[in-house]
Amino acid sequence: MTVGAHRYRLRVLSDNQQFADPDGHGERLGISSAQWSHFGQLWPSARLLAEAMDTFDIAGKRILEAGCGIGLASLVLQRRGADVVASDIHPLAEAFIAYNSALNGLPAVHYRQLDWVQPLPSLGEFDVFIASDVLYEREHAALLAAVVVRHANQAAEVVVADPGRGNSSTLVRLLEAEGFGITHSRGALKGDALGTLRGRLLHFRR
Asked: Which CATH superfamily is domain 41-205 in?
């Protein structure tokens, strides 16, 4: 696929029915068989976020992608020379983003496995948090907000591409309580089944 002036080659799962957890690692992390393949798909919101990152101001900013999946947005930032860390809870996400970095002739994106429930002090602080389509369960908004609170610099930004699953209002409320203001824009969700959906790009600043 093409983002900006660059074409990206991506290793993804062939469909959303694939499942393989022979040692129960994913299950112990709370990943059900129904959710197992979500990390390995190129979701329309991930394309929207990647396009936003192609022109995003990265100067002097440390950036964390939360729930990176196959890591397209992080690859775009890596190509631009950003200080980016990709993170996910899925046990295969690290291997996929490393493979995709190599496919595109890029240095491996720095990766940290991150369980939003468990604090990870060694992760450090960030100036920018980015995520796409990570609010598909009601509790995810509060968990993501908690990650931001734990790891945000005083003047931080949060950029979330959301297809309109209905849980973004909770994230807005929680981040506003932490001093963030919000702007939002709409963009076409390329690759959705009908080609007609429009997602929102939520941009929080403190």
From this structure: Vaccinia Virus protein VP39 (3.40.50.150)
